[in-house]
Amino acid sequence: MIRSSQAAPAIFLALSLTASSAVFAQQPGITDTEIKFGNIMPYSGPASALSVTGKAFAGYFDLVNEKGGVNGRKLNMISLDDGFSPPKTVEATRRLVENDNVAFMFGTMGTAPSSATAKYLNGAKVPHLFLISSASKWNDPVNQPWLMALPWAPNYVEEAGIEVRFARSRNPNARFAILYQNDDAGKDYLRGVKEALGPDADKAIAMASSFEVADPTVDSQILTLANTKADVFLIYSVTPRACAQAIRKAHETGWRPVRFISSGCANKETVMVPAGLEAATGIMSVGSLKPYTADSTDPDMIAYRDFMKARVPNVDPANFAAGYGYMVAQALVVVLETEIWPNFLRAASRKEVPVIFVSGRISDRSFARSQTWLSIAGFYLRPFLRSALAKAAGFWMQSENDAERIKQLPDVPKRVLAMYYYDGMKLADIALAFGLTKSRICQIHTQALSQLRTYVLGLLT
């Protein structure tokens, strides 16, 4: 650890949008020609409709590979079926890590499956990038440093709070009926409802009824909830079947409350159509992704529509699970393509430690791809790049051409210099060029930088 009793020292990182062979060569599952990683999807079982996300993953990585891969390495995703059963998730994950020697896990579907493997992956120090869950438990870098979620909406606690506050703004005396999935995710959602209601929770909640993912039907729970005549009906599930059943059965009873459905079920093709569009009319949900429309002239949507037609032709582009998979796959390529470490930069920013990217360069191919990211998935990836790049104190690029390219990325600091960097250059000289005094770097030593780089790479590669 680098400590200073005075001003925090500056940290210098190499920036290159071409991955380091020396670093990758030390990682399991990564060779000069391939990056091998694992994925778990419910291709069978009660949540099989969500496996469309895995199909979008595969289609996008095929597209990347046809264009040369990531810095010359092809992406090899080994995707296994767990039937949305946590014990099977554990078995499949161990196989991928211990037998297939994957470099990391990516995009496992669901809170319960990801929870089942969390202890194992953290203990084995195997990264799990962009696991698919909006549970609040993943925001815990101290206890779960090897896991990172990339959800499609606010976490379940916040989502529930948004819905409750909206409902009460329309009817301050509203009574709530809640159907929730009996797992960590569903309990997170129920906690969010209670926190939003505060001291009124016991009085305002008419009834909360749970169900198991494997239950063939939720009809009995709906009949019980309908008898409460509650003003607001909150439905939480990640399985389309349960959501569709809840909507249809509640409508059949003649119960007409204000209805909210969890963001994971806000899908026309897999939920609203099976429930019946008449029964589903008027339902509200929370989302943070740009909604798909078939006649959109938005360049992002045109690119996505073309992708789905070419790569996943049997799936409706309006399927939310497909659109989410498309965007998360792009986010993974961004992470693999660059050496920009968001968690590290956020930590340095909190400690008021200036970070300068040194000897930066952007290859022709990487620059072209970065422009594609910004146009195709800008609505999703710009915040990712913005939060990382905006925290840098400056960029010392290898040439005027590299400097112009980095300036075109979103929210790059104004301090962009173009000078030739040579191995013998002193860090003090670079710091002074960015307006930092020598006292800001006096505690940075070669050994400390090496240890820092090793630590960060261990966390984020």
Number of extended strands: 13
Q: Can you tell me the overall shape? A: globular
- Poorly predicted regions are 1-25, 373-382, 439-461
Oligomeric state, counting identical vs distinct chains: single chain
* Derived structural class: alpha/beta
The CATH superfamily of the largest domain bears the name Response regulator
- Give the helix tally: 19
Strand content: 5-15%
Mean model confidence by pLDDT: 81
Strand order across the biggest sheet? 1-11-12-13
- What Rg, in angstroms, do the CA atoms define? 24 Å
Portion of residues in helices? 40-55%
What can you see in these coordinates?
This protein has 461 residues and is an alpha/beta fold. The protein folds into 3 domains: 128 residues; 168 residues, Rossmann fold (3-Layer(aba) Sandwich); 125 residues, Response regulator (Rossmann fold). Helices cover 45% and strands 15% of the residues. A 4-stranded parallel beta sheet has the order 1-11-12-13. Strands 8-7-9-10 form a 4-stranded parallel beta sheet, sandwiched between helices. The chain has a 3-stranded parallel beta sheet with strand order 4-5-6. α4 links the parallel β4 and β5. It starts with 10 loop residues before the first strand and ends with a helix. The N terminus and C terminus are likely disordered.
Top keywords for this entry?
about 450 residues, Rossmann fold, 3 domains, 4-stranded parallel beta sheet, 19 helices
Topology, pairings included?
Blueprint: E1 11-16, H1 21-24, E2 34-41, H2 52-66, E3 74-81, H3 86-99, E4 105-106, H4 111-124, E5 128-131, E6 147-149, H5 156-170, E7 176-181, H6 184-197, H7 201-204, E8 205-211, H8 219-226, E9 232-236, H9 240-252, E10 258-261, H10 268-275, H11 277-280, H12 299-311, H13 320-337, H14 342-350, E11 355-361, H15 364-376, H16 378-389, E12 394-397, H17 400-407, E13 416-418, H18 427-433, H19 446-460
Parallel strand pairs: 1-11, 2-3, 4-5, 5-6, 7-8, 7-9, 9-10, 11-12, 12-13
